[in-house]
Amino acid sequence: MLRLLATTALFSFADSVETYAQTADVSVLSPSAAVNEAPMAFNIPAQPLASALSAFGRQSGLQVTLAAATTRGITSRAVVGTMTPRQALARLLQGTGISYSITSERTAVIGQAAARNDDDDDLPPIEPGTVDADGSTMLDVIDVTGHAIGEGGVAEIVITPQDLQRNNPYDLSGVFRDEPGIKVGSSIPMSQKVYVHGIEETNLNVTIDGSRQNNKIFHHNATTLIDPQLLKAVTVDAGVAPADAGPGALAGTIAYETKDARDFLTEDGVGAFAKYSFNFNGNTSIGNLTTFGMHEGWDILAYFNMGGGDEFRAGNGEKVGGTATDVINGIGKLAYTTVSGNRFAFSYEQINDDAPRPFRANIGFIDGRPPWEPRIRDYELDRKNAVFTYTDVTPTAFWDPKVVLAYSGTDVHVPVFLRPVPPATEPSSYDVSGTTESLNGKAENKWTVPLGTVVTGIDFYDDKAKLNDKFGPATEYATNVGGYAQARLDAWDRARLSFGGRVDQQWFTGTDGSDWSNAGFSGNISGEYELVKDYLTAKAGYSHVWAGIPLAENFIMNPNWDYHTGPETVTADNYTIGLLARYNGFTLEGNVFRTDIYNARVAKYAIGGPGAFGAIIARDVESEGFEIGAGYNWGPGFVRVKYADIDVTIDGKPADSDVGIYLATPVGQVVTLTAAHHFVDWGVTIGGDAEFVFDYDDVAPGNRPYKGYEVFSLFAEYRPTAYSNLSFRIDARNLLDETYSDRATYGQEFGTVTPLYEPGRSIILSATARF
Question: Which is nearest to 530 in space by CA: 576, 497, 559, 557?
């Protein structure tokens, strides 16, 4: 009965605005207003107007329509920098004499005005259907760009700044909560792993601000620990990924992008943004402060965050051991843009989690373990990321460069307990640590051609995985150099096409010093075609990916491994096909997908018996399924529902979370429901979401079926009209106090495992202030 009431309430509330404007004062806007008025980054070189408008549509998220023959023989002006879509469009069309308007339906309408001189830039735009001074009439509009392929591909998922602000996430599960095809295992940030269509994230190319993350360090820890408060956006290519996304994108990519000063300021000045939150479930406090400034080409940002609290309680009312909060992190960014447009940017980010955790940080408890192992032990996880980037903010059609040089590293320190030797009754212990590092970078240029753009470049990585253990230290190395090209074209009327390829050469060194050299080719193609103009679009894509030999997990590396004839190189094939329909605020979409990974490396510590060649054990992984979604946007609010049905096998058998370590996890059927509404006159936004995960019995023989669960959450936010720099928010998460573990959390199918439970009902109060 309570669940029925909660579901009814969720629909009747029509919760929270779909998009929050990422404006300087972080004001809350309706979805359409947020799209039209929120500042965002644009990078559109001067080029033929048709391709410039196509690029504008991709970067702004707006649909662009224009009058027939409007763009013939016209070259646009360059648009580079952070501004609203309205400002960007005005600048792009400046001096062309072409009018425009942006409607409430997320559409930019471009019309044909009478010829004007470049000196007429300040004249107001002429609306379509009106008559100009010389008697000429605006032509009817026709759609030329529709929903174009973005920098990713047809399988691209973008978590926008507005999504992040609405979700108010405190860990990665909150970042992806609207996406049923992306699951996050574990309830502790330092042991959370992301699964895209059931495939674990180390099989994707994961970056933070363009820096490659090499984090296969300990299977009980997170692979990418990150503070969601830092994030500006997250882009996921689920399966099919472009060649310029980077090497090793077996099952796609995850690109995290952090905020910088230009996300808070559009002109010279200084400011600060502060946020404090208190979670009554665990009495957890999290506070952060962001300061930023811009002056004569310089921009700087400094962010500092600290969190502390007790263990939380699950839905059954019991404390979940080892879930206390003890985190500290920050980021510093400094950039300078010369008068000629050369921009040099440097950032350094670090996060440290240092608290007692379950003995295995992603598991509640395992029955039958040695009695000398404590239930809780100290973990320390420290991740750092440094990135230097060069770009030209005044690009031309043939000069739009980007150079990235980055370093990322993760360290995990944990005590290992030894069996007591009589007469001793207490175990002795010693510290073991693992370190992963990556020095990586790229140099590329974007070429603007009449039909779109072509990116060409080279990239590299130099990765190391090291186990620091006094009884058996070990290290593996991998170095890769790749060259790539990716074209994104408006091929012909109603059609968009993206295709590309890359060639990689990798050198791999094992723990015994043996060396292996391999090379391979990756290719992709994807496209969209409007079956019914403006209303129905078909899309499809395919990629073949070569990823070389991945490094083994640090904590299972063995200096005595025999690599025999050498590990197999890992490859993958990805397929997707789908439809997208839009009509008067309604959307309906669906896609079918499949990912096949061949020779996925699953190294084992063993060197004898069936695992005689523990360094080169490999498996084949398959993920297939479909997703459907529907939504309606009515201006100040929206509602949408999404459904995913995903099956994963390993070597032809149903996946389980143990065999699938660093590979995959069972998923099954998942439904997410999100709704929102913003009361403009009151300055109030209410919203919420629900997740329905169904029972799943397609498990390996001898394993338990997975139990389903339902989770409901609501929130309300108030921004006083007289004090728009302040906001106050309350979240009620897991409203019905469900006792459950996320479907992607380890061990639920094993009778000896108590899985790590998610928090029970959690009331969170937050306050923010802009100075």
Answer: 497
Taking residues 428-443, report their average pLDDT. 96
Cα 363–368–372 angle (5° rounding)? 85
Q: Cis omega before residue 423 (within 30°)? A: yes
DSSP state for residue 192 in the 8-state scheme: -
CA–CA separation, 210 vs 255, rounded Å? 7
Longest dimension (CA), the chain: 104
Instruction: For the domain made up of 25-143, give the CATH fold.
Output: Phage tail protein beta-alpha-beta fold (3.55.50)
CA 647 – CA 358 distance, rounded (Å):
30
CA-closest candidate to residue 192, choices 650, 689, 746: 746
pLDDT one-digit tens code per residue, 18-35: 333 333 232 223 333 334
d(CA 615, CA 606): 8
Angle at 746 between CA 743 and CA 749, to 5 degrees: 75
Question: With 90 as the cut, is the pLDDT of residue 732 above it?
Answer: yes
Tell me what pLDDT residue 490 has: 85
Edge-to-edge strands of the sheet including 100-102? 100-102, 107-110, 63-67, 141-143
Distance (Å) of CA 660 to CA 131, 265, 655: 66, 45, 6
Residue 284, number of CB atoms within 10 A of its CB:
22
Query: What DSSP string describes 477-490?
Result: EEEEEEEEEEEEEE
d(CA 246, CA 231): 20
pLDDT above 90 for 344: yes
SS3 per-residue string spanning 30-93: CHHHHHHHCCEEEEECCCEHHHHHHHHHHHHCCEEEEECCCCCCCECCCEEEEECHHHHHHHHH
Compute the chain's Rg from CA coordinates.
26
Domain boundaries, the chain: 25-143
Q: What are phi and psi of 451, to 5 degrees?
A: -100, -5
